[in-house]
Amino acid sequence: MQKLIDCAAATGAQFEIYSCSSEKKTVSIENSELKEAECSLASGVSLRLVKDGLYGFAYTKNLGDPAGLVNNALASLKAGVEAKFTFPKTGGMKQLRTYSENAEAITSTDLLQEASRMRDILAKRAKGQINTGMAAATGAFRIFNSSGTDLAWKESQVTAFGSVISAGGDNYTEADCGLDRASIPEERLEAAAELFEVGRREVRPKAGKHKVLFMPEALYTLLWRVQSGANGQNLYQKTTPLAGKEGQKLFSEILTVRNNPLNDAVPGARAVDDEGTPCADFPVIEKGVFRGFYYDLNYAAKTGARPTGHGFRRAMWGGDTVVMRPLPYLGHLYFDKGEKTFAELLREMGTGLVVFGALGAHSGNIPNGDFSIGLAPGLYVENGAVVGKAKDTMVSGNIYDMMNRAIAAGCEAAPIYANNPPLLFDGLDVAC
User: Could you give the residue range(s) of every CATH 3.30.2290.10 domain in the chain?
Assistant: First the structure.
């Protein structure tokens, strides 16, 4: 690494070196039989340069030729990509609990035992395809730049899921995560199996306006669109309907949507973003009020704003962090919890739909907030009780209207689903 630092410094450019390494062990059981058990290792280094107002980038998965990596980054300057930003000088990081050495000690045998336990519980209570799985991942990261930043940290995460799948592909899942353990309690697995069995009865709701309860595993339908609307890149490119609306009450006051990387009660917490800018609790929407846009270094400079600590090497559809350049991204976005249990939300709904999975959440005009999803699965509720699967049903709308129709938020957040609670809305368009 020191040779790469020396080669980058010799160019006379501002530079940033990002390095990471990871190990992941996974075990999966499909249709009640072991499908795979594997261990994967990955590592890589990427280099960003800013020289004469231009932006260069290169990466490698094998740092055997540091000079070659630097030359590739210099060659990319010829593309003429403008850069107005400066790499930050960050002297230290807030201490968060992001890693447990116990995660490294987990074996594939440990993962298989837990996956088998979940399989056995579900198999006793449901007559569908049983899929379960476990994963244990650890990673080490470092950011070094020419402004004097040198930051390093480790991460770990263990995840578990257990699901029952119908012949038609409807998936009723429970999941859990933690820094060094994940275990789904028997009562939660039994609840998933019970919903599956109730869903074996098909019901066709009437088309029209309905109350709809979005479960945590389906809330990315909304969050993708919130993230797009508040993105500083989209503000710069004039593709967001939220331009000029900072500080305005736009949504129901029961809704607060925050991006809080500092919450280390949830795996994946971060003290700095992938550019070394310190992170902070950032309420995008607070009691219905839109608080403002988020930025990485690049788009903060382009718009004259301050970086907000949201420059991440991630994208909506995933990707390899080493090969990606930082962009504005909310990787820790969730709705604040409310006060009602799932049963209480169903009683308040009376008659309506529960969305456990969204088919086609990526479709529609995301920057404008539009969506149209198939329920995969969705359950129909009458008199506060689930009566069956909502067959061939779709929910559509626009989040800027929908989020004015929020009735209640659940009190039971799901860390594996970004710490989100269930959310109940009124008057959504349902087609059957």
Answer: 2-194
